[in-house]
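Second opinion, please. Please look over this fold, written as tokens:

===
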Amino acid sequence: MAFVFSPDVVAPLRSAAPTIAFALGLLLTAAVTALQAFLLWQQRRGRRREAQLARLTVDQGHLNTELTAANAELGRRERAAEGIAHARTRFLASASHDLRQPLHALALFTSALQRRVSDAVGLELVGNIQELIVSMQHMFTSLLNLSRLDAAAVEVVLKPHDIQALVSRMLVEFSLQAQAQAQAKGVSLRKAGRFPTIETDPVLLESILRNLVGNALKFTDTGGVLIAGRVRGTMLRIEIWDSGPGIEAVAFERIFPEFERAGSTGGRPGFGLGLPIARRLGHLIGAEIEMCSRLGHGSCFSIVVPLRLMRPDPAPAATGGDHGTLDGFRVLIVDNDHDVQRAMSLELEDLGCAVTAASDGLEALALLHAGAVPDLVLLDLHFGLGKADGWDIVDAFRAVRPDLPIILLTGSTDATTLERIRDSNIPALFKPVLPERLLQRVRDIMGACAAGPG
């Protein structure tokens, strides 16, 4: 059945139809206008985003260009810095022999002069010269060690080493320096405690010890220096105590950066490289350098070394010193520097040695073939361009007499030379050599010759 509106309902609807149609039209128009506005807003927003993205893309391109340029500049500067470091290392390596030679001869001439001066004023002046020579040697060695560390030319070779023997030998070699200070200032040098055999790099450990002991003696005017060994758990502490001026607590961290020095140096010469180099060498062998100090009472620097391959304590080592007179002990010096020849000859002749000198391998071999067989050869490793080096002469000597004792002398500390010396098992001294150290090595060889095989 169809639904039919009554006339009473239809009539009002008919009369309101125009109004309803107008309202619907307005509503539809508003909706369309709003939709158009929304679409226009979206379009404008999209254009703004595209513009922002375009600007960001341009900015990113500029940043990439700047970053590329910055990286290129950084790379250029790094290459320049590496070039400067390599140039410095090459210069020191090539010049070290020529620089070391006169300093080496000067130390020996001064030692010979001291034995020829008898008056108190002259002895004091010679003593002052010797102290300056020792300072120059330490500074020169520090610069060369720094160049080797920067060039990563320091090789670590771990092997069992008798620390007791090392410390005893150092006491002997430092004894003359300590005695000279004792006469002027009352300084003593001694050791105490345990020094077991451990696995370490003996060359690097000795370098660290020499640095710390030398510093302790240099800065101690009265009292003494003590080298103490203490085993603590899995570590060996080698402590160097001194009764020097001490260091302020605020200066503790200033003494380890390179070219920095504590304020209480008393005008003593130096570059401020000793402790930084000692710390860097310590890291190479797994050791730490520690310190404590009290201003006005002294300092203690400690090397804390791992106890690798701990072994029973060796029998107490001899403290070195005299193996008897050097009278008649025959020494052949092979060095092309006549000042060095003369200086070493004076030093050894004053102690009773019979010294012969040669300027190159041919001259030295001629002496050997003529029957002038020495008890010891002091052999320089470098003789200049176009001439045989010391290794060729070693081979020639050993072909004539395989058991001939040789001590190598060199001013070169490059990685190749150090590795070859280590592999040769031939004792070596690095110029400039302090007279007491040269003498101790000669006495060691003489003692071994006197003891004979086995």
In short: The mean pLDDT is 77. The CA atoms of residues 93 and 414 lie 6 Å apart. Residues 7-116 form the longest helix (110 residues). The two ends are 139 Å apart (CA to CA).
